[in-house]
Design a protein that fits this description.
This protein is an alpha+beta fold and 170 residues long. It folds into three domains: 54 residues, no CATH class; 73 residues, no CATH class; 30 residues, no CATH class. Helix content is 62%, strand content 7%. Strands 2-1-3-4-5 form a five-stranded antiparallel β-sheet, with helices on one face.
């Protein structure tokens, strides 16, 4: 059993370095790593503090810095999403991004949620583009091309392996 625990996923680590790397790579330094043996809490790889020695005079400044840091971590996937949505109306873009950001900030990993939304958006755009090319190449309507491609994918070995790797049912 490890000495260090991640508060986001409850994963245990024997070494502080591994726990901090996990926090950085998996949770974008938004998790808290707790040392079970001495009570230290590590918020990220750059700063650590002992909750018992916390100075309340700086609480607001630290909270504000943490808030700004979180916004900074959100900016890259947010900007990419904003760019991806250039083809839709401004009001639809505003509504989508507003709903997405509020939902992300209420999740345990807002950066990952925005990254997942970006990946999904790009996948949908890619599917539309590929279907369009196949439809034009085979001289069939887009809906027929989409159904045709879906059937090819569903019967492929790659799809079956993909489903297994992602623990999804076919």
């Amino acid at each position: 059993m490890g000495e260090y625990t991640c508060n986001q996923c409850n994963k245990n680590f024997k070494r502080k370095w591994n726990a901090l790397r996990h926090n950085e790579k998996i949770h974008h330094e938004l998790a808290i790593i707790h040392n079970k043996s001495n009570g230290f809490i590590f918020q990220n790889s750059k700063k650590s503090n002992d909750v018992t020695n916390f100075d309340p005079l700086y609480e607001n400044e630290i909270q504000e810095q943490n808030i700004v840091d979180i916004f900074g971590k959100l900016m890259h996937p947010f900007a990419e999403l904003e760019k991806e949505l250039d083809g839709i109306t401004e009001s639809a873009k505003i509504n989508y991004l507003c709903t997405l950001v509020v939902g992300a900030l209420n999740s345990s990993d807002p950066v990952k949620m925005l990254q997942d939304a970006l990946h999904f958006n790009r996948s949908v755009k890619g599917k539309v583009k590929i279907v369009s090319y196949v439809a034009r190449g085979l001289h069939i309507p887009n809906i027929q091309a989409e159904q045709y491609l879906n059937e090819i994918i569903k019967s492929s070995k790659y799809f079956k392996n993909y489903a297994k790797l992602n623990n999804t049912r076919i």
